[in-house]
Each structure stands twice: as C-alpha cells, then as structure tokens.
Amino acid sequence: MSLLERDNLNYLTHVEQFFLTLKGSGLSLSASDYDLITQWENRRVPVEVLCRAIETAYRTATAQSRSASPRVSLTGMREQVEDELGKAAR
User: Fold this and answer.
1) pTM: predicted TM-score of the whole model, two decimal places
2) Considering the domain boundaries, does residue 58 fall inside one?
3) How far is CA 43 from the centre of its chain?
4) How many domains does the chain have?
5) Which tens digit of pLDDT belongs to each residue from 1-34?
C-alpha cells in the first residue's frame, strides 16, 4: 500500500508543484508539508483557494526576509496560510 492514497494524489501533486514552482527550488516537500496539505484537503479547502493563500503568504514571507533566498516551507507558513484562508472564507 502506498503512503499516498490515490484519491489524494491529484490534490497533493497540484499543491506540491504549485509551491515548488513558486519557490523556484526543491524536488519535493517535507513529510510535515505533505501532512499539512492532506489536512487542508480533508477540510475540503478548494485547491485554487489554497494556492492563492499559499502565494500570498509566500510573497509576504519573502518580502519580510532579509535573505535573498529565504528557506520557506508550508509548515513554516502555516499560520499565514490559515490567515489567508480565513480572509477568503469571509
């Protein structure tokens, strides 16, 4: 049995590829990032809404960073993404 359920694969893959492309680096996410994506899927967060929230949170995080290439993860941005999801729900 695969660690990734087949039903989750499209959602996971979509969010993974979106985030890695946004970052411009990396080949895969951490186990905690995959777990977080699965939680969002289980909450039935639409993938388009999630990707917009991730993009906004990422732009904010990188704008606030002093590093030219900050190390950003979905888990590290969880609070900001949740804030953006809350705004989208209003």
Assistant:
1) 0.82
2) yes
3) 14
4) 1
5) 344 455 556 999 999 999 999 998 888 899 999 9
Residues 39, 61: Cα–Cα separation, whole Å: 22
Placement of tokens 């080949």 in the chain:
27
**Is the four-CA dihedral 58, 60, 63, 65 of positive or negative sign?**
negative
The residue type at 36: L
Residue range 64-78: mean pLDDT, rounded:
79
Task: Give the pair of three-digit tokens for residue 86.
Answer: 């809350």
Dihedral sign of CA atoms 82, 87, 88, 90 in order: positive
- Token pair recorded at residue 36: 């977080």
Task: Supply the range of the domain harboring residue 10.
Answer: 6-89
Q: Is position 1 within any domain?
A: no
4: helix, strand or coil: coil
